[in-house]
Amino acid sequence: MKRAYLETVALVERLHRQFLEVVKAEIDRQGVRDINNVQAMILYNVGTEELTVGELTQRGYYLGSNVSYNLKKLIEAEYISQARSPHDRRSVRIKLSDKGLALHAQLDKIFLRHSKEMETTGVGVDDVRKTAEALRRVSRFWDRTLVADAALSAA
């Protein structure tokens, strides 16, 4: 079990890096040069929603990178607009600009193409669903482990 566990962790890490490289190649092909692959995924995950920076961070859409830096770059490149909340001046809400929505639509088409191409290679929807469920169970295990460790530390 230990070997399979560590192999799975290494594979997840490698897949994440590969996915980001694929995203980079795709946005390069689209002529997008003003943001990187991590920023493109933040943009994609924001989608049509209006979020606070805290919500973005809680949902994990920052992919392990510095969310403030990446948001700053997305705002500078005019993919995301921001506005202070009228109810809480400390809170900043973000949403995609028209430029951001256009790139989101391009990325959505790319991911749809990828999902269709994946099925032609013998990786079916059931395989992907089972993998996702297994990874969710691993995630829940790690969440429980973190909670238990925090409780032990507090005692």
Overall description:
This protein has two domains: 2-123, Winged helix-like DNA-binding domain superfamily/Winged helix DNA-binding domain (Arc Repressor Mutant, subunit A); 124-155. It has helices at residues 2-29, 37-46, 53-58, 67-76, 98-120, 125-154, and strands at residues 51-52, 80-84, 92-96. It has 155 residues and is mostly helical.
Q: What sequence of helices (H) and strands (E) makes up the elements?
A: HHEHHEEHH
Strand content is 5-15%
* Biggest β-sheet strands, sense, barrel: 3 strands, antiparallel
| CATH homology superfamily name of the largest domain | Winged helix-like DNA-binding domain superfamily/Winged helix DNA-binding domain
Q: How many domains, in number, for the residues?
A: 2
Tell me, what's the shape? flat
In what order do the strands lie side by side in the largest sheet? 1-3-2
Helix-residue proportion:
55-70%
User: Based on the structure given, which CATH architecture of the largest domain is correct?
Assistant: Orthogonal Bundle
Number of strands: 3
End-to-end distance, in Å?
Answer: 31 Å
Question: How many DSSP helices?
Answer: 6
